[in-house]
Design a protein that fits this description.
The chain contains 18 helices and 25 strands. It is an alpha/beta fold. The strands form 6 sheets. The chain has a 6-stranded mixed beta sheet with strand order 4-3-2-1-13-14. It starts with a helix and ends in a 15-residue tail after the last strand.
Length: about 575
Amino acid sequence: MNLTRRDFLELAAIAGISLTGGNALAQLEKLSPEKLMEFKPVGNVTLLHICDLHAHLKPLYWREPSTLLSHPSLVGEPGFLCGKAYLEYYGVKPGSLRAYFDTYLDFSELAQKYGKMGGVAHMATLVKQIISERGKDRVLFMDSGDTWQGTAVALFTKGKAIVDVQNALGIDVMVGHWEFTYGKERVLDLVENHLNAEFIAQNIADQMWEELVFQPYTIREVGGVKIGIIGNAFPYTPIANPKEFTKGWTFGIQPERLQQFVDELREEKKVDLVVLLSHDGFSLDQALAKMINGIDIIFSGHTHDPAPKPIFVNNTMIVIAGSHGKYLGRLDLDIKNGKIRKWNYKLIPIASNFIKPDPEVEKLVEDIYRPYQKKLSEKIAKTHQILYKRDTFYSTFDRVICEAIKEETDAEIVFTPGYRWGTTILPGEDITVDNVYEMTAITYPDVYTFEMKGEKLKMILEDIADNTFNKNPLYQQGGDMSRLLGMEYEIKLGAPAGKRLRNIKVNGKDLDPNRYYLISAWGGNLYRAGKNVRPDHRPVYEIVIDYLKRYKTVNPPLKSNVRVIDVKCGCPKKGGICS
């Protein structure tokens, strides 16, 4: 992508670079080592890709995890890399723009240097430049889902605001996961009456009639190349989210059906390229590529991994484009006679301080926020510590949520789910109402308080651990471990199922398997496994907003309440954890 003189002057001004002395270009390149959006076009096909936007329309801060743990046999490979291990694997320079976008290292300091990330108006500028450069008939834009949920404006409009933005960006094809938490009727309404893109899924069927709910694939001609795109929705949707949202629909991985569609596209439809647009997760898609023959490229999603280079499993290329609108994936292909002769890939960081926003999309975002601006922009507290969301066992914003719930309910133990989406707030910054929704905006937000026997509590935690740390990626259902207040424990990630947790303490005392504990939880159906559920329950975002208004400042501890016995995270230092 070529920069005009005007573009350069604008970027230099944004970056605060002096144009005197003849070294402005050197200064700009030093600030952005990747020379901003530079890309060498290849061939006749450009495939653009985003995943896991989680409804973040405006620029934000998003800190990548400081621990990204799994079963010891999986850690240290793409999908389970963070911090120094990530920098070493991908050859990223510490302190660079890429290091800032892709790791937690020196995050607060680099945030001051590079500014916020993402923003759909800034992304739109790049998309329009690419289309202008390549021609509309050579560009296809795909979305791997988790797009309609995650912010207040998404929740308040039941996903419609985000669909409007997808239409403005020019999304051509998408799949889903959190989209289904609006309920299947709302999903069908948005897909059939509002969304311009095709919504595809080969693995969602009507339970009674066994008919597919959505088209399993679409065929698009791009740059004279016939491309078959198969959709895979998140296979564990009815388990990860309340099953009533998709009652009557079946999900699953469905590898046999997937293979049939791959064969159909190749043998009957005579496509030149077979693509899987997936919300399976990066590690699961790597396992799936070993099971299915004939997929050329998998565009993955769900696990939020920023992977600047494709990986190859057998003959399948796999790419994934991070999360929260921080990146735009671009894959250029030179295809002739059904063969990929050359390719070039870049995970483009949406460095909003260096990209001029598209006026049309910027206005659309302003119009979307206008009815809610007064409510959402209210400053309700300040933070002394960095408030982040993503990590394997613990996050500082989850600690604030737990403290707020405990004060509200006086529970002995508080559960908050290990969702991967949210935002990051730097030390000393204001916390707004919008920020709270960015951490909690779901369609089932109520906090429930109930009693549960210690024995069952341990069993449930072991089950969550097995979903998170299973040796086989096909059985990992996504998300991090539930965050807990009032409990601490040790965990051996490589231990057999049901035997990972040990030395469990409740408020300093050993867990009593025969005692009933008072527990508060939100974001799922945990209360249904307990008894004596209290009739009074409020949405978690209301509880947290009220708590922050009372205290005005927060200073959550940085230390986790979980000790991992068999740490292996891929860091260069032997035995070290990603910190």
